[in-house]
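Let us practice reading a record.
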Amino acid sequence: MRFTRRSVLKFSGLTAILVALLPRVAFAARNSLRTVRTGNQPAGKTRLVIETSARPSYSLSYPTNQLVVTLSNTAANAQLAPAMATGTLITAITQVQSGDTLQIIADLAKPIDEIPRDNIMLLNPNGDNEYRLVLDFAAGSGTARATTATAATAPAKKTTPAHKYVIVLDAGHGGKDPGCIGKGGTQEKTVVLSVAKKLKTKLDAAGFKTYLTRSDDTYLKLAYRASIGEKKHADLFLSLHANANPSRAMQGFSIYTLSEKASDEEAAKLADAENAADKIDVSGFEQFDKDIRIALSSLQQHAVAAMSVEYANGAASAFKRAKITQQPGPDVRHAPFAVLRSTVPGALIELGHLSNAAEEKLLKSSAHQDKLVAAIVKSVQAYNFDV
């Protein structure tokens, strides 16, 4: 054996074979292994997903025909049988506990090169999932050297889809509904339509298939906007808005996902204001087709909600990395927005505050709109549509 093993748990296919009993662990690990699973990705890539109870600190190394993921301060899971998809490069997975360090050793059918950093993702918890380290790789020359990629430094994955994911962009308000209006006369409906059009151009160029709910100054009911995401079989729905606040000093972006209960009073007030566009009753499903109502009842609180929060967290990070001012408060808030009530994962993005004089000028400027668009594009590219 190539490793000195205090304990080994080896898996082949869906069957777990205990090679050596795991000793009683004397250390108090802050992290523990939850699941390991493999999958197939476009362009012949293999995906390895390692789920842990806490955010992992990890490093990668590449012995011959192996990929070794070393997790510091992490305990093994003796009862774990990984979910092994057929057709991947991974033939077996082994756990090796050494003190407070856990190694996940993937035996490979073919050698691989060092995994590029943009093929490494670290996903935050959502729904039933905890922290997930996601690695995508393909067969290579096998000349990779051992490398270290820590959770703190590994950037988010950028997705250039092998097949085109569908994004629906909803420019809020329109027509007889101007939305909020800045002191200088800037109308929300005008700003968000400009941003939506620029965003469509950039996302299409990045390999996505993008649709607008409106491409001109048209008034649309909120339920109709949501239905466009359904009809286009969208993978992501983004509703763009600009905010207003009684305090003229308030500024910054904010991001919201759908929830039956608002996360705070301000989120509740904002949802009420946005929903007032057509006085829709967001407590019921009467405005939706029967099949959508059925789907909502089973999916909304689980998969769709989890995927929406996943995107929203990534979007908030992308905005902050772009040094766009954030409204004080949590990165992501939740409220019963009618326009988000569908089976499509989505978020409502408040781009800034028209009630703030300085931010009103920014929101009107082409340069700042381009900055907002670039951040949203990065958030969509980094979003994991498949996990």
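A brief commentary: The radius of gyration is 23 Å.
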